[in-house]
């Protein structure tokens, strides 16, 4: 099963390839304040997504490549710009991580986008 990793002092967990690994990650998701899922146009899961997360001042707080369709990151409360690239296409979202419970989001890549 995937183990937590560290990128510049930020703890994260990524993976979810296969049923057992996906179930393991879903159970661990509550330990992280930002929970991202990556999907393609048909709802299929994506891996190898290049991720960058910036704080409200524009400073990069996190960068990594996902090992599977799930990426969970432990960030302090605040507003973040999430930039993800897959299949040569970039997606961007602004998300607010609350003080309690965290936030979940799905980033989708479609052929027309």
What does this structure look like?
It comes from Cupriavidus necator. Keywords: Carboxypeptidase, Hydrolase, Protease. GO terms for molecular function: carbohydrate binding; carboxypeptidase activity. This is Carboxypeptidase regulatory-like domain-containing protein. With about 110 residues, the chain is mostly beta strands. It has one domain: Immunoglobulin-like. Helix content is about 10%, strand content about 50%. The chain is built from one helix and nine strands. It has one helix at about 20-30; strands spanning about 5, 10-15, 35-40, 50-55, 60-65, 70-75, 80-85, 90-95, 105-110. The strands form two sheets. Strands 1-2-6-3-9 form a five-stranded mixed sheet, covered by helices on one side. It has a four-stranded antiparallel sheet with strand order 5-4-7-8, with no helix packed on it. β7 (about 80-85) and β8 form a beta hairpin. The longest helix is centred in the first third of the chain and has 10 residues, at about 20-30. The chain starts with a strand and ends in a 5-residue tail after the last strand.
